[in-house]
Amino acid sequence: MRDTQQQLEMAEELMQQLRSKATELLLREKWSDSIQVYSQFIDLCQHQTPITPKLHKSLCLALSNRAEARSRLRDYAHAMKDCDEALKIESAHFKTLVCKGKILLNLNRYSMALSCFRAAQLDPQANGSSVGINEYLQKCKKLELMSKTGVYDLSEWVVSGFRAKPPEPAEYIGAVEIRRSGIRGRGLFATKNIEAGSLVLISKAVATERGILPGHDLDENAQLVMWKTFTEKVLDSVAKCSRTCGLISTLSSGEDEDELEVPEINVFRPESEEFGNSSEKKVEASRILSILDVNSIVEDSISSKVLGKNSDYYGVGLWMLASFINHSCVPNARRLHVGDYVVVHASRDVKAGEELTFAYFDVLNPLEKRNEMSKTWGFRCSCRRCKFEAELCLRQEGIGEIEMGFERAMDAAAAVYRLEEGMRKWKVKEKEKGYLTASFWAAYGSEKLMRSWGRRIPTMESVVDSIVEAVGSDERVLKMVVEKLKKGNGGSSVVEIERALKLGRGVYGKVMKKQAMKSLLGLGILEPSY
Fold first, then answer.
1. Which of 154, 234, 317, 518 would be 208's cystine partner, CB 3.0–4.6 Å?
2. Across the strands, what pairs with 188?
3. Ramachandran region of residue 53, left (φ > 0), alpha (ψ -120 to 50) or beta?
């Protein structure tokens, strides 16, 4: 009896030491060390018989604190299990409810997070707590609404000159679905008409890695180090989260794409339980690396804009749903990178049933140049524009001569004049005119040309409309329009300013109000003439 009492006292003393040490490590933000000590304490508690009410309370708090430490290491799956175990002991435990709510918020499960914070708000501790339950409640409500409507407003941040942090977006999936693609493998398709600038999806990265861009020239060794760090982050996320592992397994590794299953779009919604509790789904590290080779997205690309402080960095990341978007030389979508989120929007009007596509490379180039660039990506584009231009080259020798002259730095005016005359002679339709105009954009984009050739070539407005109709909004086209407006010295018409703002929405998306867009484009001081 005496020996048993001594053993209990020794065990109690050891538990007290472990609890104190774990708490100290937690306060010092030594997350891994605190998890290890809390695990020893929890294991010791669970082997005590009987478990007294006091021990129950200590066990509940230890599980809650271990959950906090695990969540700081982004080990959300195990952190959630700790929270659930703690709540079995005390269903209304304030600290655990707050911790679980924050984890769910990080997982973009807004309605479930809201339920946790509402339950925590009922506890008397909520009034004197420094946690800020009301702030969390408001944040959850705002993000939940955003996840349903796709309304994301960056106006204040843009007008402030990108000071402080951007407003946090919610994950959002619009009117899209995954189908078999006529381009390659599987693709993302619109399920209803989408207006230019409208958001298609907002997605949080599985992982990102960024490096400072010294003079826009990141050397090969620096890129390799970045890629290594990035892949390690992804592998860590896969190891910690069965859902991430399951979702990554749906992506292409570049082989047998036509045989891959077409996943339901709902699988990618944060609240989906698909893959959530499965420990059976395993993906070999070698396959994950192949998947990253095929699906990783570089932030600094022709079809994207990076806003805020990240615009000074070279970044790479994995955004699951965005990786289903194929390339086309007649793209209809662009993306905006804000923090760790990618915001995909339509760059021109998209019809229901139409596949959403990015430009993987600069499509404002002639066919031969585009073919060269597509080879570096490991495919040959066969979109309707490429097919049309290839057939035209076979049928009409003149187009080939113009392209060769363009490559040899032919006088821009002569190239444009010959092209315009050729299109009239070949009876090219309006849509196809847009393709060719986009191909020789470098020649058309000369203000001097517009002045010297006058009525013999289309006006700048006609050229812009033709290009945007064919290949969507492009930053360089937008820049040309804006520069012309600025040179107008305040004499710009409402129509001209609205044209620029519409182009801006095609480039940046409908994520800011008119005044913020004018500020971003440098048109804030312009007043329309009537």
1. 317
2. 178
3. alpha
Cα 380–chain centre separation:
26
Nearest CA among 288, 294, 353, 300 for reference residue 322: 294
How many Cα atoms sit within 13 Å of 249 on the Cβ side?
17
How many helical (H) and strand (E) elements, i.e. helices and strands, does the chain have?
23, 12
Residue for token pair 């420094």: 130
* Interatomic CA distance for residues 89 and 56, integer angstroms: 7
Per-residue pLDDT of the chain (530 residues; tens, 9 = 90+): 555 666 666 777 888 899 999 999 999 999 999 999 999 999 988 887 677 888 889 999 999 999 999 999 999 999 999 999 999 999 999 999 999 999 999 999 999 999 999 999 998 877 766 668 999 999 999 999 999 999 999 999 999 998 888 999 999 999 999 999 999 999 999 999 999 999 999 999 999 998 865 455 667 787 888 899 999 999 999 999 989 999 999 999 988 888 899 999 999 999 887 765 555 567 899 999 999 999 999 887 888 888 877 777 778 999 999 999 999 999 999 999 998 999 999 999 999 999 999 999 999 999 989 999 999 988 999 999 999 999 988 877 667 667 666 665 556 667 777 788 888 888 888 889 999 999 988 777 665 655 555 556 677 888 889 999 999 999 999 998 898 888 765 556 788 889 899 999 999 999 999 999 999 998 865 554 43
Question: How crowded is residue 452: how many other Cβ atoms within 10 Å of its Cβ?
Answer: 12
Structure tokens at 383: 């979109």
Q: Which pair of tokens denotes residue 382?
A: 């066969």
* Sign of the four-CA dihedral 466, 469, 475, 481: positive
User: Which 8-state DSSP code applies to residue 49?
Assistant: S
SS3 493: strand
**DSSP 8-state class, residue 355:** B
CA distance 241 to 270: 13
3-state SS, 305-354, equals: EECHHHHHEEEEEECCHHHHCEECCCCCEEEEEECCEEEEEECCCECCCC
Environment class of 165 (CB within 10 Å of its CB; exposed 0-12, middle 13-18, buried 19+): exposed
Give the helix/strand (H/E) hosting 400.
helix 397-407
Query: Which helix H or strand E contains 376, and what residues bound it?
Result: helix 367-376
The pairs formed by 151-157 with CB atoms below 8 angstroms and a separation of 24 or more are: 152/199, 152/202, 152/343, 152/511, 153/511, 153/512, 153/513, 154/307, 154/338, 154/511, 154/512, 154/516, 155/512, 155/513, 155/515, 155/516, 156/516, 157/308
Amino acid letter, 109: R
Q: Rounded distance, CA 34 to CA 65, Å?
A: 9
CB distance 163 to 128 below 8 Å: no
